[in-house]
Each structure stands twice: as C-alpha cells, then as structure tokens.
Amino acid sequence: MSYLALQAGVFAAPGSAELFLLARVLFGGVLAFMGLNHFTNLGDMAGYAGSKGVPAPNLAVAFTGGLLVLGGLSVIVGAFVVLGAGALSVFLLASAVGMHDFWTVEDPQQQQTEMTQFLKNVSLAGAAVGLLALGGVAWPYSVGVGLF
C-alpha cells in the first residue's frame, strides 16, 4: 500500500475521526494536567527532583511542567504535533529512567510506587510515539498547523 493510500485510509472508518479526537483529548488532557501539577506543587516536586540529582530542580520542574502543558495542548488541538509528541516522548522516557529508577529502591512499598510511575511514563511515551508516527498525516478536528 502506498503512503498516499495509507494517509487517505487512516481515518476512513466510520467514527474513527471522533475516536481519535477523544484519544487526543484524554491523552493530551492528562499530560497538560500533569504539567499544571508541576506548577501547583513546584516546591514538593523540586524537592523530589533534587533528591534524584536533577540540577536546578526548581527550574527543571517549571520547564518540564511547561513542556507537558504545551505538549498536551499541541496534541489536543492538533498544532505542531511533531514537536509536541516528540518532546513528550523524549521527556516521558527520560523521566521514567531518571526519576523512577525503581530498581535502585530497597523499600518494597516505595519500590512499587516507583515501578508504577516508571510503567506509567513508559506507556504514555509509547502513546506519544504512536502520535508522532501520525505526525505527517492530516488529523481530523485539528488546527492543522505544524512544521511538516
């Protein structure tokens, strides 16, 4: 199947465009909310980031909060999706490994919490990579502006 045929058929099934919009709202909304949480709990999150060895933890938490908000909104509205989904996938994988290193935690309860956060970030990164793969396809119900 050619790329043009694939592009034309991606959202050809009845209801697929609406389901894709719902997926974007759910995924992007969760990430944007997580980003807002970076700002509303900046002190606590910076303390945690500092304990993990993150340099300039206040700045890092604020920056990543902004990245999550902008990336989530980018996916929801369908604007600059390659940048948004790409940045989200890199952040989610990096934070999974760097912040939720459950394999180094000895306390079983804390280890389980870190493993849950690690797996959450990895699964969200997988969704972001999936959206990134669709970055060159016109998304229904989207603003439709971007670099590609």
Structural account:
It is a single chain. The protein has about 150 residues and is an all-alpha fold. It contains 6 helices and no strands. It has helices at about 5-10, 15-40, 40-50, 55-75, 80-100, 110-135. Helix 2 (about 15-40) runs antiparallel to helix 4 (about 55-75), helix 3 crosses helix 4 (about 55-75) and helix 4 packs across helix 5 (about 80-100). The chain is elongated. The mean pLDDT is about 95.
Tell me the series of helices and strands, N- to C-terminal: HHHHHH
Spans of at least 5 consecutive residues whose pLDDT stays below 50 are none
Straight-line N-to-C gap: 22 Å
Return Rg in Å: 17 Å
Instruction: Please tell me the overall pLDDT.
Output: 93
Determine the structural class based on helices, strands and strand pairing: mainly alpha
Strand content: under 5%
Shape, per Cα inertia axes: elongated
Give the count of helical stretches.
6
Helix content: over 70%
Please count the beta strands (DSSP E, at least 2 residues each). Answer: 0
The major beta sheet can be summarized as: none
Keywords summarizing the entry:
6 helices; mainly alpha; 73% helix; single chain; 148 residues
Overview in brief:
The protein is an all-alpha fold. It contains six helices and no strands. 73% of the residues lie in helices and 0% in strands.
List the helices and strands and how they pair.
Layout: H1 3-9, H2 16-40, H3 42-51, H4 57-77, H5 81-99, H6 108-133
